[in-house]
Amino acid sequence: MQETVDDLLPAELRDFLACETPGTWIDAALDHPDLLLIDHAQCEKKAASTAMSLMYRYVDRPLLLTKMSQLAREELLHFEQVIRVMESRGIEYRHLSASRYAEGLRRHVRREDPQRLVDILIIGAYIEARSCERFARLIPHLDAELAKFYRSLVKSEGRHYEDYLMLARRYAAEADDTSVDARIAFFADCERQLICEPDEVFRFHSGVPVAA
Predict the structure, then answer these.
(1) Band of the pLDDT at 5, cuts 50, 70, 90?
(2) Which of 41, 48, 160, 208 has the fewest CB atoms in 10 Å of its CB?
(3) Quick one: how far is CA 53 from the chain centroid?
């Protein structure tokens, strides 16, 4: 019996996202497997870089340092794994321009800490949750090798989503910042718009593909 998205994703993660990935994005991903894997590799590298950046900026937060160190190592491992998959399929890794997704979220980050940190962590949770959801929605359409790989990523990216959200709530509570739920709702709407609005280019986190 084929796995469904409900089988692969916990209800909490599905509820965290304000929308599902549009079917037209799935179609574009299947039509452009090379772009999917190349941008996936770039996303893993960027995720590791973000975790390292947080470690350098917030050296006085032991739990964050531990979680981000673990996350960075795991994301770099994923990067290596994607590169190996690409090599086995004759796909050459190359630079791609970034999608508007991450920047579209980060432009709303508040300027002063600890609010700045809380917003960055919430955004991290949304990026990881969306990655997880997209892996799960692609799995039924993929060959056995890639489906198995993406199934393993659903579990790890799900942990990353949980860690980011946990840290956001923890540091908001420590700062008596009662706006954390409002900020989560705000970024949910921002993320929904980025996923559901038309996009000129196809990327791993792009919105609805514009017909050529």
Answers:
(1) confident
(2) 208
(3) 17
